[in-house]
Amino acid sequence: MFSKLDYPTDQEAAYRLLEQQAVALLEDEPDALANYANLCALLGQFLDDINWVGFYFLKENELVLGPFQGLPACTRIAIGKGVCGTAVAENKTMRIDDVHAFPGHIACDAASNAELVIPIRHEHNVIAVLDIDSPSKGRFHEKEAEALERLLKRVEPFLLNIDK
């Protein structure tokens, strides 16, 4: 039923296709957890040079591990701690070229050198974060972060009905 797709080499075209795929994959599934899991798998196939991709859900003032692909990860992260917790505390995307230079970085995978964390919001409130790690310093670029932010805004309606 599914097979790995060769994406266009043009990054903008590739992200447009990714967005179309994500909507088609998620729009008919009413369970948000299933949608987070499938979105994670889709991103894991789409993104090059990453060693971890997944979600953390905001529950009772801490982030709790959700669906992911990669090595086992930290299960809970305090708000304001590490890149993920800082993204929630500051309510903004964090694009870190060298995680070892980031004060308070939480090293779940020693191979990670760069990180991109994007808050997922509902009615302006953070409900989760997308966390992506790479073994390559400087891996994540601003245009890529913006494309992933647009993708998350587009699929937000399919990510809301999760038990807390």
What would you say about this model in short?
The chain has 164 residues and is α+β, with helices and mostly antiparallel strands. The chain contains four helices and six strands.
Question: How would you characterize the overall build of this protein?
Answer:
The chain is α+β, with helices and mostly antiparallel strands. It has a single domain, classed as Beta-Lactamase, CATH 3.30.450.40. Helix content is 33%, strand content 26%. The protein has four helices and six strands. The chain has helices at residues 11-26, 32-46, 82-90, 142-155; strands at 52-59, 62-70, 76-78, 94-96, 114-122, 125-134. A six-stranded antiparallel β-sheet has the order 3-2-1-6-5-4, with helices on both faces. Strand 2 (62-70) and strand 3 (76-78) form a beta hairpin. Helix 1 packs antiparallel against helix 2 and helix 1 (11-26) packs parallel to helix 4 (142-155). The longest helix has 16 residues, at 11-26. The N and C termini lie far apart (32 Å). The mean pLDDT is 92. This is Free methionine-(R)-sulfoxide reductase. One of its GO terms (molecular function) is L-methionine-(R)-S-oxide reductase activity.
- Whole-number total of structural domains: 1
Which fold name corresponds to the CATH topology? Beta-Lactamase
Rg value: 15 Å
Overall structural class, as computed from helix and strand content, comes to alpha+beta
Percent in strands:
25-35%
Q: What is the CATH level 1 assignment? A: Alpha Beta
Task: Label the overall shape.
Answer: globular
Approximate helicity band: 25-40%
How many helices in DSSP terms?
Answer: 4
- Main pleated-sheet profile: 6 strands, antiparallel
> Which stretches are low in confidence, meaning pLDDT under 50 for 5 or more residues running?
none
User: Strands of the largest sheet, in order across it?
Assistant: 3-2-1-6-5-4
Report the strand count. Answer: 6
Counting copies of identical and different chains, the oligomeric state is single chain
CATH superfamily: GAF domain
Task: Report the order of strands and helices.
Answer: HHEEEHEEEH
